[in-house]
């Protein structure tokens, strides 16, 4: 998420990054275009690695069309949940430009975990099912712990994390990550459900 890391917001962030301001001005393409922009090279490289790793596995299991459906759903649902954060009655949650394909990355991760729940990854010694559950719980907690939300207990924990040097954690749109993850989980579950033949 682009949240003040540069001294000014360039025109392409204003026009193609996702924000309520842009949507209310009729820039509905932002619901997809934000995924093509990134805040910096590190952001881009991390997302490309996840797309390559999780996307490659999902592509092998489901094929191109269904994999693209999961990517599109992750981008859309992640963006919508990010926008919803700006509508919640919270104390000081400010507007920011969302950029990056993280929603799709989390959708692919959860789809992979759902499609092969017992698989253990080489560099993460947990099952796919536990990895997926951990991602959803972690992103939900980090989203709700945002200090500007003003939620009892949770925002206090967020403020403590900022005091310990974790302010950058809240420059990330955990709402987008969570929305993408839930979209990937739902689509993968639907794809796993056998379709009964008409009688």
Give structural notes.
There is one protein chain. With 199 residues, the protein is mostly helical. The chain has one domain: Rhomboid-like fold, CATH 1.20.1540. It has nine helices and no strands. The chain has helices at 11-16, 20-24, 30-33, 41-62, 64-85, 102-115, 128-144, 154-163, 174-192.
Q: Quick summary of this structure?
A:
By secondary structure, this protein is mostly helical. It contains nine helices and no strands.
* CATH class category label: Mainly Alpha
Helix content: 55-70%
Number of helices in the DSSP assignment:
9
Number of domains: 1
How far apart the termini lie comes to 50 Å
CATH names the topology as Rhomboid-like fold
Q: How many β-strands, per DSSP?
A: 0
Q: Which series of helices and strands comes N to C?
A: HHHHHHHHH
Question: What kind of sheet is the major sheet?
Answer: none
Task: Furnish the topology, listing elements before pairings.
Layout: H1 11-16, H2 20-24, H3 30-33, H4 41-62, H5 64-85, H6 102-115, H7 128-144, H8 154-163, H9 174-192
Helix pairs in contact: 4-5, 4-6, 5-6, 5-9, 6-7, 6-9, 7-9
Give me some keywords for this one.
60% helix; globular; 0% strand; mainly alpha; 9 helices
């Amino acid at each position: 998420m682009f949240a003040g890391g540069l001294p000014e917001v360039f025109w392409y962030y204003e026009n193609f990054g996702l924000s309520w301001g842009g949507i209310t001005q009729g820039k509905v393409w932002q619901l997809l275009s934000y995924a093509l922009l990134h805040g910096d090279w590190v952001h881009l490289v991390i997302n490309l690695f996840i797309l390559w790793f999780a996307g490659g596995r999902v592509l092998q299991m489901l094929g191109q069309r269904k994999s693209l459906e999961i990517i599109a759903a992750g981008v859309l649902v992640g963006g919508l949940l990010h926008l919803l954060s700006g509508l919640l009655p919270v104390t000081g949650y400010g507007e920011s430009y969302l950029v990056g394909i993280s929603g799709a990355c989390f959708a692919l991760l959860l789809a992979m975990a759902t499609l092969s729940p017992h698989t253990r990854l080489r560099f993460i010694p947990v099952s796919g099912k536990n990895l997926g559950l951990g991602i959803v719980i972690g992103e939900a907690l980090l989203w709700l712990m945002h200090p500007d939300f003003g939620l009892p207990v949770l925002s206090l924990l967020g403020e403590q994390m900022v005091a310990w040097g974790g302010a950058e954690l809240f420059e990330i749109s955990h709402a987008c990550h969570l929305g993408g993850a839930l979209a990937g989980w739902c689509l993968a579950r639907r794809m796993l459900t056998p379709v009964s033949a008409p009688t």
